[in-house]
């Protein structure tokens, strides 16, 4: 079979001539011959496989620059790149779905008087038994609870810098502005952390109260647990490599708990880049008890032990003391920061 005109090639590849001209300009799919007088493009039949692959990848929504990368790889490597792209799409979809659900709930919610709830809290941070310094920071106030687990060298801790950016929120905030105010503060925290340099970063998990609602912001692998009606729920999702593997069905939760890369973060406030945290608005109820903690606690103390302490010890100060003691009793391999807060 001889060369195909751009029209014939477009029909065979299910691409438009306009798209083919664009791909030529980008170096993604160039014709084998161009008429020097008319400028008409001609393609070889052997180029159809590449053209059809491009067409399918465009239907997936893959950007042209990434399609070029896929086309330059061999079969298995190209398949791996497509799989990686689709995991990113699914993660973005899940994030958008949560945001859509929140917006639908807010738009459907009738205006109602929101009674003000009070919180009683205690906070503790501990170096542990192994680390030479403590980079875990916790802050608790009448409206703001926050935990950050920093990493990297330097005199200024990224965790302290991040929480300092949130502290001004520990004052009256209108309920309708909760998410926007908290999101803006976290963005400022990210800027402040990036100014420290490329090799430092921190997790950041915080709750901001107004009336009977609270805004939650979360990035990294610190956690928030909610004890309600005697049951303990983890209400944040770890931004770690192993958690993404669990979500994809490649690891079980039990395998993830002992995985050698279980502490490898995929999202954090980091000096190298900006990352989007999870944000959501929640309703608080009298009797709720919240636990915010760094991974030094939840990796050292079992979920059942956490539930036991949260259920059996009524005083928040005694509860945080017992939680840290249990982490150190189990080796104290990492710094620990935790907050226990009761809603009344």
What is the fourth-level CATH superfamily of the largest domain? PPM-type phosphatase domain
User: What is the CATH T-level topology of the largest domain?
Assistant: Phosphatase 2c, domain 1
The total strand number stands at: 15
Report the radius of gyration as a whole number of Å. 26 Å
Report strand %: 15-25%
Global outline: elongated
**Amino-to-carboxy terminus distance:** 80 Å
Instruction: List the domain count as a whole number.
Output: 2
Structural class: alpha+beta
* Average pLDDT rating: 89
Order of helices and strands: EHHEEHHHEEEHHEEEEEHHEEEHHHE
Descriptive report:
By secondary structure, the chain is an alpha+beta fold. The chain folds into two domains: 4-72, Orthogonal Bundle (Multidrug-efflux Transporter Regulator, Chain: A, Domain 2); 116-343, Phosphatase 2c, domain 1 (4-Layer Sandwich), CATH 3.60.40.10. It contains twelve helices and 15 strands. The chain has helices spanning 6-13, 17-25, 48-60, 64-71, 75-108, 158-166, 178-194, 241-247, 253-257, 295-298, 303-312, 316-329, and strands spanning 4-5, 33-34, 41-43, 119-126, 136-140, 144-151, 201-202, 204-210, 213-219, 223-228, 231-234, 269-270, 278-283, 289-293, 336-343. Strands 5, 6, 7, 8, 9, 12 and 13 form a seven-stranded antiparallel β-sheet that branches. A five-stranded antiparallel β-sheet has the order 4-15-14-10-11. It has a three-stranded antiparallel β-sheet with strand order 1-3-2, covered by helices on one side. β8 and β9 (213-219) form a beta hairpin. α6 packs antiparallel against α7. It is elongated and about 85 Å long. The chain starts with a strand and ends with a strand.
């Amino acid at each position: 079979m001889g060369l195909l005109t751009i029209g014939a090639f477009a029909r065979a590849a299910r691409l438009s001539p306009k798209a083919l001209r664009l791909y030529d300009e980008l170096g993604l799919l160039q014709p084998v011959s161009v008429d020097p007088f008319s400028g008409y493009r001609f393609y070889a039949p052997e180029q159809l496989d590449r053209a059809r692959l491009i067409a399918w990848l465009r239907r997936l929504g893959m950007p042209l620059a990434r399609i070029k990368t896929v086309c330059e790889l061999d079969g298995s490597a190209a398949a791996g790149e497509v799989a990686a792209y689709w995991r990113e799409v699914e993660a973005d979809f899940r994030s958008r779905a949560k945001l859509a659900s929140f917006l639908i709930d807010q738009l459907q919610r009738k205006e109602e008087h929101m009674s003000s709830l009070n919180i009683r809290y205690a906070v503790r941070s501990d170096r542990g038994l192994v680390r030479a310094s403590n980079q875990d920071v916790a802050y608790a106030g009448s409206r703001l609870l926050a935990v950050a687990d920093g990493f990297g060298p330097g005199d200024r801790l990224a965790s302290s810098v991040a929480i300092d950016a949130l502290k001004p929120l520990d004052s009256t905030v209108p309920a309708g502005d909760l998410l926007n105010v908290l999101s803006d503060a976290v963005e400022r925290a990210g800027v402040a952390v990036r100014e420290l340099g490329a090799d430092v970063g921190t997790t950041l998990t915080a709750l901001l109260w107004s009336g009977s609602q609270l805004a939650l912001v979360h990035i990294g692998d610190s956690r928030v647990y909610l004890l309600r009606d005697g049951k303990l729920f983890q209400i944040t999702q770890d931004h770690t490599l192993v958690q993404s593997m669990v979500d994809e069905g490649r690891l079980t939760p039990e395998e993830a708990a002992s995985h050698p890369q279980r502490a490898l973060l995929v999202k954090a406030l980091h000096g190298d880049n900006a990352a989007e945290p999870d944000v959501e608005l929640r309703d608080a109820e009298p009797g709720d008890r919240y636990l915010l903690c760094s991974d030094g606690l939840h990796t050292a103390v079992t979920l059942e032990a956490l539930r036991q302490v949260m259920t059996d010890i009524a005083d928040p100060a005694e509860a945080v003391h017992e939680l840290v003691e249990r982490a150190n009793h189990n080796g104290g391999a990492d710094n620990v920061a935790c907050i226990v807060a009761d809603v009344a």
